Amino acid sequence: MLSLLSLKKTHSTNHHLFQIPKRLFVALSPTATSTQSIEVERIARIINDHPFPNQPLHPTLTHHIPPTLLTTAFVENVLGRLFAAHSNGLKALEFFKYSLNNQTHFSPSPDSFEKTLHILARMRYFDKAWDLMVEIGKTHPFLLTLKSMSIMLCKIAKFRSYEETLDAFEKMEKRVFVGRKFGVEEFNVLLRAFCTVRKLKEAKSVFVKMHERFPPNVKTMNILLLGFKESRDVTAMELFYHEMVKRGFKPSSSSYGIRIDAYCKKGYFADALRIFEEMERANCLPTLETVTTLIHGAGVARNAMKARELFDEIPKRNLQADTGAYNALISSLVKCREVKSAIQLMDEMEKNNIHYDDMTYHTMFLGLMKSGSIEGVCELYHKMIDRNFVPKTRTVVMLMKFFCVNSQIDLGLNLWGYLVGKGYCPHHHALDLLVTGLCSRGRSHEAFKCSKQSLERGIHVSEAVYGMLERFLLQSNMTDKLGELNQMIEKLQSVLPPSSGNYIHSPSNGME
Description:
This protein is mostly helical. The protein contains 26 helices and no strands. Belongs to the PPR family. P subfamily.
């Protein structure tokens, strides 16, 4: 099955897979004081609210950031907040460059560079991202890491072609990471870029093409195993796993964890438990992540009792339950329609001083929605806001849709205002839902105001939002508002090309 493994036996020590988190770490560093946290929020809000592109950002940064404030941790935390807030990528880039030019108290770190690069690549501003990588390679080469390489390659693999991704890898070797000899670790990053976006065919092609140049190690095999898992073909995954073992690669905890996760996601919980036992027999100690995966798997199999049993075994394995483990059990309870028990578990988390994260809220909101409890959703929403917690994009979109569909449009507006007030730029999907809900209720003025706030912060509106606003503003005889909207769109497009799906203004649209 695997011409893929037509290679010589290779030995390597076990390493964990090199991973890029799906979400950059956004929380402030543990060493950040309350004063620093306030300053991070203040500057992030100033950057987000800064009118773009009507005024340059640099003078504003100079005015609001005293030199003593510009520390390494401060820059990392501000960029983390800008990432979470879906800020305009060019603003984040300008802030990062501003920090580089003021290094009296600030020492640039790979983390700050990676966050800036991730913001640009996520918005598909690849030209700007490339320019930054080339520049950093010349001025601060120590900032270039495998993680920054992975950020770029993963986004290119996701949004561009196979050939363009290979060209990007070659460009990094020849023009960016100059003087660095590429080996199996860099090759693993390229493979993982394809595997994480479920392009297994391309990953196998790269492996066959390049494995002689980069002799693989067990991490390489785990990455390909991950690719099979992401393809949801457990039979092919198992065939590859046994071929991998046959070729002399010793399975690591990651190898077992990938297989367990694959079976759990397919609902084959008994098979997942079988592999878990196989893992223990091989003296490969299960990690908290492995147990958490099994708890999730028990939920998929609708076995709340087993999920609770696995959770209760965590301290017996000399492990300590964290937010992720609690979230897994909450998810299992919700899947088994035991919403009250899930709520009680949230109370237990609070009692044990284990903080909620976005997954906690998202799972509970989903459970309350499925149970038909509008009051429960609204109550939890208000508690979340009272805690000053800012949900992530998918939770925002889910809440906005729920509020708009269930005649709670004022709560949708409240959520929008809360996010903007916190210095966040709500995702355009949230704006689409809110504008649709407002316009369908004859509240086009408020829909215009929300769209304007998005444009002012340097975020494009979608074609659907523009078309709806155009129709309703003309019906309401608010041609002045439509003209203002057109001017803002054209001004933004002059410096910031829209991403796919966003509105592209032309003379045929709107007013002449």
